[in-house]
Amino acid sequence: MKIHFKEVKFQKGAISPKDFPVVSLPEIAFLGRSNVGKSSLINSFLRKKRVARVSSTPGFTKTINFFRVDHRFFLVDLPGYGFAKVPPRIRKQWKTLVESYLASPRPIKLLVLIFDIRREPDELDKALIEYVKVLARPFIVVLNKIDRLKKSKWTQAKRRWQEGLGLKDEEIFLTSCKEGWGIEEVRQKILKALGK
Ligand SMILES: Nc1nc2c(ncn2[C@@H]2O[C@H](COP(=O)(O)OP(=O)(O)OP(=O)(O)O)[C@@H](O)[C@H]2O)c(=O)[nH]1
Ligand SMILES: [Mg+2]
């Protein structure tokens, strides 16, 4: 389906649940470690370069950022978790904030969990998947930065994540925000979740 977004408005940068905008539209949330490309994927989805701020400094997005797309839905850019250089107090703050969003009764139609394909899945990643499953939120896993890996390694890397996290084949997408690879599949999945 071809779809064109007219207006994308930065609605709110929330530092606590009281800042969350009033529930009015369905939401798609992007979650993952610092620097995996959450903000980049939002821009790729929108086909706009500078909606969500992208930075090479991990831990850049510190608030839950709500972007309203026309009067149709919100894209929600969550702060990266598990970034070691952030002081423990701040890390805990982010965790509490992200969990209060995920566990809230908001209409999250799809949770997009993003990982850097070059990494190995670890305990924190597994715990995240378990948590999302317990919440019974619909989700997909996006393995980003595939341009940083030789094409001959993609299948093997995908299998590693699939087995490591106990996922079904159709739950995993491979992307490069840099090259635009795999973005269309993710876009279609998101639009479908929104009922478009
Ligand atoms: N090579 C490559 N670089 C990417 C890709 N996606 C994002 N990046 C780069 O990775 C860095 C982090 O991207 P962001 O989109 O800011 O990541 P984020 O997950 O929002 O990071 P935080 O807000 O810090 O949690 C930037 O330098 C991006 O240009 C990709 O697919 N390939
Ligand atoms: Mg970001």
What's the short story on this structure?
The chain has helices at 38-46, 88-102, 123-135, 154-165, 183-193; strands at residues 8-14, 27-32, 64-69, 73-77, 108-116, 139-144, 172-174. The chain has 196 residues and is an alpha/beta fold. The chain has one domain: Rossmann fold.
Architecture overview:
The chain is built from five helices and seven strands. It is of the alpha/beta class and 196 residues long. It has one domain: P-loop containing nucleotide triphosphate hydrolases (Rossmann fold), CATH 3.40.50. The chain has a seven-stranded mixed beta sheet with strand order 1-3-4-2-5-6-7. The longest helix is centred in the middle third of the chain and has 15 residues, at 88-102. It is globular and about 45 Å long. The N and C termini lie close together (8 Å). The model has no long low-confidence stretch (mean pLDDT 91). The structure holds guanosine-5'-triphosphate and magnesium ion (MG).
